[in-house]
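Deviation from plan, reported transparently: 2-acetamido-2-deoxy-beta-D-glucopyranose complex.
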Amino acid sequence: MQPPSACACRGCIPWQGILLAVSLLTFWSPHPTAQLTIQPVPVDAAEGTDVLLLVHHASANVVGYTWYKGNITDSRHRIVSYSILTQTATTGTAFSGRETIYPNGSLLFVNVTQEDTGFYTLQTTRNDFSNEVATGEFHVYEEKTSGLSVGAIAGIVTGVLVGVALVAALGCFLLHTRTGRPRSF
Ligand SMILES: *[C@@H]1O[C@H](CO)[C@@H](O)[C@H](O)[C@H]1NC(C)=O
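Because the crystal trials were delayed, the predicted structure below was used instead.
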């Protein structure tokens, strides 16, 4: 048996060194739950459905939320702001009338269009006037059922009618041969 302090190879890092490195990394890396994040639900939405941008890990001392369209915090792209202190929402130039902000900062989009696809930025304001920014993104795709062409629908209808006609013809044929036979006896 090898003594535990012995190094098996030349130039290998002693286990104490690895432990020190791991503990230093744990100490320096920011706590994952402290980071403000945006979770779009769903990330891919069909046209005409609703999307909710959920806010996670906002600081306890947040007094206001402001949402912007795009990857920027530019007042010209402001959708809506919410003040926790006054419990009021104020709309901006990028407000479409389909967004609702909740007291927890989450933003609901109803009846999304393909133009809604893109980035959305949230800026929180704390009671010490500092702020935090996080960005989320969602994609709106064309509704598949409304995308069916007139030709495709006509094809399906024709196929069904041909099927019904075949079944009817087969039924008539069977009925004819069944009712026809007893008379011949
Ligand atoms: C925030 O509020 C909305 C609406 O009440 C809710 O749907 C959502 O789950 C809440 N939570 C988070 C984390 O945003």
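The CA atoms of residues 34 and 139 lie 27 Å apart. We consider this an acceptable substitute for the interim report.
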